[in-house]
Please model this.
Amino acid sequence: MSSENELPLAGIRVIDFTQVMMGPVATQMLADYGADVIKIEKPGTGDLSRTAFPNDPAGLLGPVYCSLNRNKRSIVLDTRSPEGKAAVLKLCASADVVVNNFRAGVMERLGFGWEELSALNPRLIYAVGTGYGLTGPYAHKGGQDVLAQAMSGVMHRRSDADQPLAVHATTFADYSAGMHLVQGVLLALLQRAKTGKGQRISVSLLDSMLAAQTQEGTAHLMRGREVNWGAMPLSGVFETSDGALVMVGAFKANPLRDISTALGVDDLSLDPRFVDHSRQVENKKALQGIFRERFRSGTTAHWLARLEEQDLLCAPVRSLAEALADEQTAINGMVLEADGEVERVRVIGSPIHMEGAPVTIRIPPARLGQYTDAVLEEIGLARRQAAE
Model:
C-alpha cells in the first residue's frame, strides 16, 4: 500500500469553499487521492449538509455531510471580517487550487474573485461550479440539481411518453458536474506543469446535463430526430411474480427470437407485427404486453436464468439496501469504514480503483472547525488573529 506522500495528489493544497454536493463531491475525490483539502466553513452553521439529515440526534455529524467530506480538514473563518479575509488570502497565496460553487459574483463580493487571487498567486487554479455558467442570462440564478434536470431536457425525456413528468431520485446533475470539476482541476494541473501558469476553470450543472445527453443531443442537432434508448421495444422493466427485472434486447442478430425462446413462446420475430425494428416500434404496446404476461408468471430468479441461457442482457431490479449488501459491492471496495470521534462512519467509496493509490479514510469527516488551530498555525496565525 502506498504511503500518503506517494498518493497522486500529495503536495497539492486545495482551499475548499464548497458546500452541499456538486463542489464537495469534487473536492472529496481530490482529497481521496492525496490532496490537502482545507474546507472553509461559516461560524456556527458550516456546510448546509451538516444539518440536511432530518431528526438526526444532536451531536452527530450527519450522513449527508459524512458522504462528501472525508479526508478534508475543516476550519471556521468569518470571511467577511478583516481578520478572516486576511487569513483566507494568506492561505490562497500558497495554494494550488481554490474551489467554490457559489452563485456568480459571491466570491468577488467577498474579495476572493479570480482577478484578485490570480494576481496574488499566478500559479493558482481557480475552479468554479455554477448552475448555468459564469455569464449569460442565467448566470446569477440559483442553480440546483432538480432545476438542471428540468432546464436541460433530462426531465422531459422519458422511456414512455405516457409516464408523468417526475424528479429523478438520484442527484445526477450534482454528481456529474462534480466529476467534471475534478477533471477540469486535473487538466489544469497538468497544463500548469507545462506552462507554470494557473487558470480559471468552470463547470455548470446545465452543461453537465447537456453533455450527458451527447448522443441524444447530437441526433437532434444533425437529424432533427429523437434518440430514446429507454423506449426501445425489446427493452424495459418487467414485473415478475416476486419482484422485477430489466431486459435489454440488443447487440444480437435477432434478439426477439432469443427472447421468445427464453419466454417459452413461439418465435415472435416471425409474427408480421414484429418482423423488423420499425414494426416492433409501431406495435410496442402489443409486444411488451406479451412480455409482461409471461414475466408475471414466474419468479425473478427463474426468468433471469432463462434470459441468461440465451445470452440476453438482464438484471434484477434491486433496492439500494440490496445493492449495498451485494458481494460484488464489497469486493469492489465500495463501502469504506472508519472510527470517527462521535460514531463509526460507513460511507460509499471511490469508483476509481488505482492499484498504487487505494482510497482509505485518512481523515474521518471532521467536526465543524476541528482543524482551525492547526491550519492557522501552519500559516503563522493564531485563531484570535483570524476572528471566527
The chain has two domains: 4-214+326-386, 244-316.
